[in-house]
Specification:
Blueprint (H helix, E strand, L loop, with lengths): L27 E2 L28 E2 L18 E10 L2 E9 L5 E8 L6 E3 L15 E10 L2 E9 L4 E8 L6 E3 L7 E5 L5 E5 L6 E2 L9 E5 L5 E5 L6 E2 L17 E4 L4 E2 L5 E8 L11 E8 L9 E3 L2 E3 L9 E2 L10 H4 L8 E8 L2 E7 L28 E6 L9
Parallel strand pairs: 1-6
Antiparallel strand pairs: 2-26, 3-4, 4-5, 5-6, 7-8, 8-9, 9-10, 11-12, 13-14, 14-15, 15-16, 17-19, 18-19, 19-20, 20-23, 21-22, 24-25, 25-26
Amino acid sequence: MKFQNVLNTGLLSILPTSSVSQARPPRTALSLPFDIGPSTPENTANYTPPVFPIAPFNKYAHNPILKPNPAANWESAYLYNPTAIVLNETVFLLYRAQNTSKTSSIGLAWSTDGVNFTRLNRPVVYATEPWEHIGGTEDPRIIRVNGTFYMTYTAYDSVTALLCLATSTDLLNWQKYPPLFPGFQDVEYSDIDVASPRINHSKSGAIISEPTADGLYHMYFGDSFFYHATSRDLLNWTALPADQYFAGPVNPWENRLIEPGPPPVKTRDGKWLLIYNGMTTGRVGYPQNQYSVGQMLIDPSGSFRPTINVSDGMYQPALRDGPVARLERPILVPEAGNEKKGQVDQVVFAEGLVQFKGKWFLYFGKWNSSFLERTLNDNIPLTSTTGQGDSELGVAIADVQLETQDLA
């Protein structure tokens, strides 16, 4: 059986979508608004852990929040897939940008309200290593542990995607490390369920920012199944074999592949909420190859702990037999014109989630074409306002549930 051992929890339904605002001129700066260091405070005041699921998300009325900047070659063509973190009551986005040759770099932007952003006038991570040429550096996901930022990203040499890691204490200067899982072999499935092995392929690493009781940090990665890796120092990672994947596609909207979104967020009861992305074969009521966004609840401290022999000794990996629960339906789907047509069609893709000023901000977009959004409450058609490949960043916002509230 290809997919198994997953409890589905259907909680949300899909409603129509929304509109987009007029474009705003880019705001750029030569430096950050303040110096960042190990002691810079993280998270927003009065942070409240979530309950599963976070819902509903409402589209910000004045999207897009960022678009390609024709005045800067490195981000002149496309923007995608931003990760987010809050520092000193400021939201920082790290986002993938492409030039007209489709070489990717990672840019940095910031906002004191979560929606109006100023961007640094240069990339902070770009191709410097052999495994990063010519495709560049893609799709960042960031956490912070003990004052150090750990950012997973995908290096792409125009042939193979390789999951990599970089560290920083100031968001500007990054120490890169070699690919995390050289030689890893997974499998991808076509839209007619034909399997093809992929050797030396890995991407999309979402790290849980706290270790389990045994001192292990946990990462979920992959763009076919969710694979599982552990580390004691956040730098050296050991992946379980692909056939011992953590979770696979189950629901119709995700039945071709699933891929992690933002790093998991700890819930009020000590589990972890993971927003993720899925693609459908299109044979079960969704358009073929459509990407949508969902949520699942995971527990890396689960009781299923077989002992596995690995090269660096003995350790006990956490629960591998799937999430505690996942939503049966997606929370975001492509519906409007410029979400459905782009460099890759039928895609919305989430990679950034923060709590800020009493709200949840979900940053997401249209993978390989445009950053757009679809919310649970709107019913106005979205129309394209960009002449640059419909490539935009957007945000959706949800209320923070109070400690005394329970989901109905």
